[in-house]
Amino acid sequence: MHNIEKLGLQVFAAPDNMTGKSQIQVRAREIDFVTSFGKNMQALLDVMGITRMIKKENGSVLKIKKASGTLQDGDVAEGEEIPMSQYKVEEETFDTIKIKKYRKGVSIEAIAERGYEAAVEMTDEEFKSDLQNVVLDKFYTQLKMGSLVGHETTWQMAFAMAIGKVKNKFETMKRTATGVAVWVNTLDVYKYIGAADITLQTAFGMQYIKNFLGADIVFVSSQIPENTVIATPLNNLIAYYVDPSDAEFVKAGLEYTTDSATGFIGFHVQGNYEHAISDMFAIMGVRLFAEYLDAIAYIAVGSSDTQTLGELTVTSVAGTESGKTQLTVEPQLASINNVLKYKTNVSAATSVTYGMDVKTWTKWDGVSEISATSGHHITVVECDQNYKAIRSGDVVAVVKS
User: Fold this and answer.
1) Where would I find the beta strands (DSSP E) of 143-263?
2) What tens-digit pLDDT sequence spans the chain (401 residues)?
């Protein structure tokens, strides 16, 4: 029998590495965070008809596709050879998907002021919302790059034409649209419906209506510019993710709590004694993606005369430095939100059409001298905040030798 007096208080000490109440609370918080995020994401995928996320390796290249081809005449005489209709799908590197790292903390002052539960709940919800927006912002950026552009005089006609254009595009690709998703500005919806009552549902921070004006699902967001309708077939949408529970991370001592059902995000909480804060860490590589960029319709609402590409008068004089030219452009920008972009070409002006996406062109502030080759063409475009061409002009560069 042990001599308690000789052993002292060590008899009553907790065993090493015992799981205590604090560890259980932290673990529950991590599980709640990843489960909630996963369920919200899965709810949106269900609405979009995306049956599963596609797992990608960290750093994988994401490619957009473009389908082209012509259906040959089917009126073939008896015994004659049936002409071959050739279609091809071209791929272009668009972006990469990789694990991104995020961190947020709640101070002991906040905990002391509001209590642990309130302080943690507030910061966790805000953190989760910010992470959702990371995914959605990238998705909205791609939607706004849709190349099926057009202009209609009314919002309802723009809505109808957006649906028609993407269905027609899929038909030319010999694919059937399983449904159509439409994105519109919040104010535009309420202008259209007036006092009518509609019920908006929410999934992963996106508000939506089902079966509205011929669309299977309509997403309503202030991220979409007013007087704009964007649409794409539901089966043009894909979801990718990088597994945050990668065994290689664990080997490095970086173990994150994940939701076994989804695995979209990793989350970890730990105390930071140096700064007296509760640190929250998240790693995530999630992308909503449209596979065919030319199956996204971007239809603007405006008067019929705005369907024509406007003209810019561009002049070029030798710059102050060797190899530079100084451009001037008239008239001034039509809107404070518009920007100038340019592209050089050896022998001719670069072709531009109204609404063409010029996101990849070089941005110009309208003042700085431009590096160019004497005799080459410089095409300047005025585009809106979504990089859709509004006006264009071209000049042969005069360069200081």
Assistant:
1) 148-152, 180-184, 201-203, 206-212, 215-220, 228-233, 237-241, 257-258
2) 555 455 454 444 445 443 444 454 567 878 888 888 988 899 999 999 887 788 888 889 988 887 665 556 667 777 777 776 666 677 878 888 988 999 888 888 888 888 877 777 788 888 889 999 999 999 998 898 887 888 888 899 999 999 999 999 898 888 889 999 999 999 999 888 876 677 889 998 899 999 999 999 999 999 998 889 999 999 999 999 998 887 567 667 778 888 877 888 988 888 888 888 888 889 999 999 999 988 999 988 875 444 678 899 999 999 999 999 999 999 888 777 789 999 999 889 999 988 888 988 999 999 999 999 999 999 999 988 778 888 999 999 999 98
The structure's pTM equals 0.69
Domains defined along the chain, listed by start? 308-396 (2.60.40)
Place of tokens 């007087």: 227
Q: What's the one-letter identity of residue 380?
A: V
The residues near 67 (Cβ < 8 Å, ≥ 6 apart) are: 87, 88, 89, 90, 172, 173, 292, 294
Work out the number of other CB atoms within 10 angstroms of the CB of residue 212. Answer: 18
d(CA 336, CA 350): 25
Q: Which amino acid is at 90?
A: E
Which letter does DSSP use for residue 357 in this model? B
